[in-house]
Write a structure and sequence with these properties.
Helix content: 40-55%
Order of helices and strands: HHHEEHEHEHEHHEHEHHHEHHEH
Radius of gyration: 19 Å
Bound molecules: 5'-deoxyadenosine, iron/sulfur cluster
Number of helices: 15
Largest sheet: 6 strands, parallel
């Protein structure tokens, strides 16, 4: 690879992205990783943002073929955390230095939008923290209720940009519906995160190139890219795991296409490779998302087996992370780690005297 043609990544040119993803001799791929590391340093800096994830319910009404939480997995013991439990965990995390709390669950209609809004409101009262929601597809008005309570960000991965593959993997659902949700969230003022899985059946490098182009089209603030890991109690039990190197290349190219995005070193990557977190941070990633779910629930949130999540803050998780980062010449961010682009936009709206949503709409 004789240098990278950044112009062709701006549009972006899908054929060219696929060509970069195919880079296979050792030195070609290494030069891609070096380039994405430089772009990461110039556009988002050396700070690494840490987001604490609370997996508050493993009930799911969907039946994604790859996921252990799917509705038809009758072998999984299900749980729901109460709002008080969620608040207690958030409080400890904030005391331990977390500036973002991510509330994640399966698609669980048990919690109404107002239930989620009340939890968000209570977390926002604990301090200057960002709240990210990852609770799946809901209506525009439900998302509006959550936003009005002060939720800042929303994660909803598109999973694959191939509409036929999407339909096969998500019975009764469509990629269009997914994209509509992401657009709704963006219209409401959420910082949005999407992402996709590497190693799905029938996926090719061209599919992955389209995944990256879709991130650009959606103009996402964050993107999570992780390898597929087979779960024994799903229809994809015997499908091989995704390729670690291809995942790193997809992450690196995403950094080149979206220089200012927040890109996490995903847990799935660390599960497949013991140095996955470090490799991702050297190939474009600038976020880590330790799991702060209480251990008795965490073991039941089995999307795939052997999830290599980082330990919770009671066990010094955040200190361990700071040490690992220092050894890499990076540092733990002390800020909330809002979207780089959105931050500039909200500074602009403040300058124009536009009011923020929370406060006016709070119940
Ligand atoms: N392997 C890797 N990632 C998975 N996810 C779900 N199941 C798997 C699996 N078997 C990811 C999806 C989903 C997120 C919660 O976990 O991308 O959005
Ligand atoms: Fe449910 Fe998400 Fe798993 Fe699909 S990937 S079954 S929506 S938890």
């Amino acid at each position: 690879m004789a240098g990278i043609d950044h112009k062709r990544l701006e549009e972006p040119d899908i054929g060219y992205i696929a060509q970069l993803l195919r880079a296979h001799p050792e030195d070609e791929a290494e030069s891609l990783f070096r380039c994405s590391d430089r772009v990461r340093k110039c556009s988002v800096g050396d700070s690494v943002h840490v987001r604490g994830i609370i997996e508050f319910s493993n009930y799911c009404s969907r039946n994604c073929l790859y996921c252990g939480l799917r509705r038809d997995n009758g072998r999984l013991k299900r749980y729901r955390m109460t709002p008080d439990e969620i608040i207690a965990v958030s409080k400890t995390a904030i005391q331990n230095g977390y500036r973002t709390i991510v509330l994640q669950s399966g698609e669980d209609p048990y919690y109404s939008a107002s239930d989620i809004a009340r939890i968000v409101d209570r977390i926002k009262d604990l301090g200057d923290v960002a709240v990210t929601l990852s609770v799946g597809e809901r209506s525009h008005s439900e998302y509006a209720t959550m936003k009005a309570a002060g939720a800042d960000r929303f994660l909803l991965k598109h999973e694959t940009a191939d509409p036929d593959l999407y339909r096969k993997l998500h019975p009764g659902k469509s990629l269009d519906e997914r994209i509509e949700c992401l657009k709704s969230l963006k219209d409401l003022g959420f910082q949005i995160g999407s992402g996709f899985i590497i190693g799905l059946p029938s996926q090719t490098v061209s599919t992955i190139a389209r995944d990256i182009a879709l991130l650009k089209e959606l103009d996402v603030d964050m993107a999570g890219i992780g390898p597929f890991i087979p779960h024994p109690d799903t229809p994809l039990a015997s499908h091989p795991a995704g390729d670690v190197r291809l995942t790193l290349k997809a992450l690196a190219v995403t950094r080149l296409v979206l220089p200012h995005a927040h890109l996490p070193a995903t847990t799935a990557l660390s599960t497949l490779h013991r140095d996955g977190r470090r490799l991702a941070l050297s190939s474009g990633a600038n976020v880590i998302m330790p799991n702060i779910t209480p251990a008795r629930y965490r073991e039941l949130y089995e999307i795939y087996p052997d999830s290599a999540s980082l330990s919770d803050p009671e066990h010094g998780g955040i200190r361990e992370i700071a040490e690992m980062l220092e050894s890499m010449g990076r540092r733990l961010s002390k800020t909330r780690g809002d979207s780089f682009r959105r931050r500039r936009q909200s500074e602009h709206s403040r300058a124009q005297g536009m009011p923020g949503m929370r406060g006016g709409l709070r119940r």
